[in-house]
């Protein structure tokens, strides 16, 4: 098929060697055997093809080896580069390790720890982090936790807070920043909108039914009788106020007589039984509170709390006679530990008195009198121990001092010393002296066994009412202080089968002068039964895993009162104004911190933080919203009222000040010319003349007469019975003043109303403050003494 002129080399060159396999090129005989009919020309071509295939194979091998060598060199180069990079990374790693060690030594690691703790909302870490981040800022921004703590710190001691800021010891938020966060004082009394918001926020963080079960604690705190005019709210504060729970008799009588000034704060506080929260839910300002009125406030508060999803399981208070009568009314006349719940009849409501108050009463009566049918229970044995070790440097009973055995009225309030009287160190010392009676000590110590038995019973009763955690009994090695987790607990049976029969038999067998008072024994009996029944109810019906009885006490509300006093600068005598401000700050910040030296075991409230929101104004409980018409007519009277010269001079001085306020608020020269004059022309101007150094203003005769009418109008108006006295007075006076001669402007009709409004506001506002101060001065108790007392404490009392 090839052309006849083609050479063999050309024929071989045209053969497709790329299609020949290795076997075909290396075994020509096989190719010959496969084609027995091949011609010589074909044989020659096959031989040439085998040689060429061998050559191509070797060429391919060389190419492969070259490529392999190139790839090997490339990989070797990569390995060399990676080794070099690894060495560089090892050097860098060592450098970073050394730098990290330096950072650890320089405190950066501590800062990172603080930052991690701040991310977990640790208060201390957040405050420290704010100090660092805002150190160089001209306009610092603060975390919410920092602002809350600064609000509390500044209210406790404004001077110390401002010193820390001014001396740059700490960088803290300024006063305006804190005031913006807290907002204005709403002044609501009773179950306020702020309380309702607090409970709603708290309920969102309490998902389980047990966490919403709580104890309602009631207590009173004495306050000073002071009458204030609050300029921000334009209202008077300081009078008796029941809020929305005001008794009907009080509401009806408020139309005809003035409310007296309050001297007590009646407060209601929620204390969680399974979760720690302490929330003041209602507060009222009262005076000489009756049991009927208190019962109305109790029922009102329980209904309000229950309507928001919380369940009031217990009602706790001290055994003051008003509180006892209130509970009797709630029980239907006879005290009972359990009554029907006023909101849900299917549920029980447990009534109890505070066990700390009962313990103090028992202690006081134990020290004052001998108990028992034969007066065998006596504190004289403890007093003998005190006398024995009084002058010794080494004492067998450490906590036994004059304050324990001979306390004054203020020292009797201390709970810790009351507990220490019945504690094991004292009973152990008595038991030892009983064994040594007649040998190394007085023979009278041989009769201490009834006293020791009584003291041990009281101490065990207190421990069972004061269980605070699940490890207390392990660390103190006192089985009585273990938490309650079973209804078959032997301590519950001991309280009902041993303790109560012992106290009842002792009470029945003793004479009136040698036994506990009927009120104390009744409170002791009621509280014990109520505690046992409540523990069983919580474990069985409410499915509590365990119960801590310290949550049954009124420590939470005592802590609240102490913190309110601290917010007012550690003032023991608060008034209505400082009490309301303190309560609202507690509700907004969620912080209740008790004093270290107080009777309170609870330290700090763990209430959920309340978001910032606008505080609503206080509810209006009075009826008058405007000045009576017959009073308003006095302002338009053209009759000149005679006043004494001293009062006329004072009115002229105030009128000159009013002219200056008009001059600062208006630019109309025609209006100013009608109310001022160039110099003194009347006798009443001489008071201004004696004080004038060139800057005082003399009012005109017509303007002075108008101010006198305003004074008569103010004195005749029932300012204490008005909801917003300043607004009511200005609304009644300004239109009338605008029609009077000195206020009428020939150029502009609106100037008269504007001038009348300015003058009325400036004139009435300080007079309202003076009215409130006058009421306070009338009721302020002060005793004149011929000479200074020898005891400085008498001056404080």
From TrEMBL:
<protein>
    <submittedName>
        <fullName>Putative transposase protein</fullName>
    </submittedName>
</protein>
<feature type="compositionally biased region" description="Polar residues">
    <location>
        <begin position="1"/>
        <end position="17"/>
    </location>
</feature>
<keyword id="KW-0175">Coiled coil</keyword>
<dbReference type="Pfam" id="PF21787">
    <property type="entry name" value="TNP-like_RNaseH_N"/>
</dbReference>
<feature type="domain" description="Transposable element P transposase-like GTP-binding insertion">
    <location>
        <begin position="356"/>
        <end position="471"/>
    </location>
</feature>
<dbReference type="Pfam" id="PF21788">
    <property type="entry name" value="TNP-like_GBD"/>
</dbReference>
<dbReference type="InterPro" id="IPR048366">
    <property type="entry name" value="TNP-like_GBD"/>
</dbReference>
<dbReference type="InterPro" id="IPR048365">
    <property type="entry name" value="TNP-like_RNaseH_N"/>
</dbReference>
<feature type="domain" description="Transposable element P transposase-like RNase H">
    <location>
        <begin position="188"/>
        <end position="330"/>
    </location>
</feature>
<feature type="coiled-coil region">
    <location>
        <begin position="65"/>
        <end position="106"/>
    </location>
</feature>
<feature type="compositionally biased region" description="Polar residues">
    <location>
        <begin position="32"/>
        <end position="49"/>
    </location>
</feature>
<feature type="region of interest" description="Disordered">
    <location>
        <begin position="1"/>
        <end position="49"/>
    </location>
</feature>
